[in-house]
């Protein structure tokens, strides 16, 4: 569902996994749907809504623009179809809440959300060190992105920084309870955006986001009671040439997170054997959106803003 960059990347990964048959690729642009469908031996359609409502599918991958997510997810939930949905879950917290409620009403988790940092080997190795380091004091997420043209603060928070928000929620002691956000040069054309988050269990996190065009880099660094830990840089030779010593960092997320995407999709396929979906949930998407909206409010008011996330319902805590 959605035959853009992410949709075609996921389609190719799925096609390489044993036991997976891609039946149909949907995109409102026929040529895009046909191109991806042809590469994986599937049919093409320009009617994503009909595909989402189909009862013949075991699973549905949603990689369409975020404004379309809610309707597609609700249609698939109504059919009991397993879903892998790209982040963000939806574009408002109300919309996210409707998804959470619809999934809860079905009685078991159907949706895995594409907050895929949790599958990235560098992030996973960092997380594994935390229990030995004592209380977490500061988690620093640095996200150097490559998007042109410049986007609004709300869009950057909703579709890029949502990943770092999930990283903080995953690694932090307790939920994010308050955020302060700053941006430059303006909220309409973000170049840099800083979020300071306070955790309910103590300590704080920072997200430093930059919209550059020279490279794509994502890293996490944790300072804790008995030491610290940082994600390993991407594997690259150190090159000495023409007066420079350099390493390659890459220019997009497909390269930096290729392995994470493969592990994410493989986990989703494996989870079809289980009674319920696993991995990042609709609840995670909902709470991340509440944090996004608090950060937008902070930018508008110039104040720090409380995040009033409800406690995780038993339905999501237990699955
Ligand atoms: C992009 O859509 C992604 O998902 C990347 O992981 C993220 O780093 C980037 O900022 C987004 O635009």
Record keyword descriptors for this entry:
alpha/beta; 319 residues; globular; single chain
Structure description:
The protein is globular, with a radius of gyration of 20 Å. The strands form four sheets. Strands 11-10-6-9-8-7-14 form a seven-stranded mixed beta sheet. The protein is built from eleven helices and 14 strands. About 40% of the residues lie in helices and about 25% in strands. The chain binds (2R,3S,4s,5R,6S)-2,3,4,5,6-pentahydroxycyclohexanone (ISE). (2R,3S,4s,5R,6S)-2,3,4,5,6-pentahydroxycyclohexanone binds near residues 143, 147, 159, 163 and 253. (2R,3S,4s,5R,6S)-2,3,4,5,6-pentahydroxycyclohexanone binds near residues 160, 163 and 218.
What's the quick description here?
With 319 residues, this protein is α/β, with parallel strands linked by helices. 38% of the residues lie in helices and 24% in strands. Strands 11-10-6-9-8-7-14 form a 7-stranded mixed beta sheet. Strands 3-4-5 form a 3-stranded parallel beta sheet, with helices on both faces. A two-stranded parallel ribbon has the order 1-2.
Secondary structure: helix percent: 25-40%
Task: Determine the strand fraction and express it as a percent band.
Answer: 15-25%
CA-based shape: globular
Q: Sheet bearing the most strands, described?
A: 7 strands, mixed
Number of strands: 14
Each distinct ligand: (2R,3S,4s,5R,6S)-2,3,4,5,6-pentahydroxycyclohexanone
Name the quaternary structure: single chain
CA distance, first residue to last residue: 26 Å
Structural class of the secondary structure composition? alpha/beta
Mean pLDDT: 95
Low-pLDDT segments: none
Please count the helical segments.
Answer: 11
Radius of gyration: 20 Å
User: What are the secondary-structure elements, in order, as H or E?
Assistant: HEHEHEHEHEHEHEEEEEEEHHHEH
Order of strands across the main sheet: 11-10-6-9-8-7-14
């Amino acid at each position: 569902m959605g035959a853009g960059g992410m949709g075609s990347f996921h389609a190719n990964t799925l096609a390489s996994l044993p036991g997976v048959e891609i039946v149909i690729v949907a995109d409102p642009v026929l040529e895009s749907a046909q191109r991806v469908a042809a590469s994986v031996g599937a049919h093409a359609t320009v009617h994503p809504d009909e595909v989402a409502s189909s009862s013949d599918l075991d699973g549905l991958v949603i990689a369409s623009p975020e404004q379309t997510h809610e309707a597609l997810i609700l249609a698939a939930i109504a059919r009991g179809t397993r879903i892998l949905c790209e982040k963000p879950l939806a574009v408002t917290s109300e919309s996210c809440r409707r998804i959470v409620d619809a999934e809860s009403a079905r009685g078991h988790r159907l949706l895995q959300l594409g907050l895929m940092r949790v599958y990235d080997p560098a992030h996973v190795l960092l997380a594994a060190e935390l229990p030995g380091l004592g209380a977490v004091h500061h988690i620093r997420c640095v996200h150097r992105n490559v998007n042109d043209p410049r986007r609004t603060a709300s869009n950057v928070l909703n579709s890029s920084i949502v990943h770092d928000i999930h990283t903080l929620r995953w690694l932090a002691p307790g939920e994010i309870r308050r955020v302060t956000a700053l941006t430059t040069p303006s909220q309409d054309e973000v170049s840099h955006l800083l979020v300071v988050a306070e955790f309910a269990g103590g300590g704080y996190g920072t997200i430093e986001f930059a919209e550059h065009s020279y490279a794509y880099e994502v890293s996490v660094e944790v300072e804790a009671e008995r030491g610290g830990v940082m994600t390993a840089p991407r594997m690259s030779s150190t090159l000495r040439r023409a007066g420079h010593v350099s390493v390659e960092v890459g220019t997009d997320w497909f390269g930096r997170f290729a392995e994470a995407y493969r592990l994410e999709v493989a986990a989703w396929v494996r989870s079809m054997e289980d009674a319920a979906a696993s991995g990042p949930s609709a609840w995670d998407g909902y709470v991340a959106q509440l944090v996004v909206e608090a950060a937008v409010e902070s930018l508008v008011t110039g104040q720090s803003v409380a995040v009033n996330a409800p406690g995780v319902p038993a339905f999501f805590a237990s699955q």
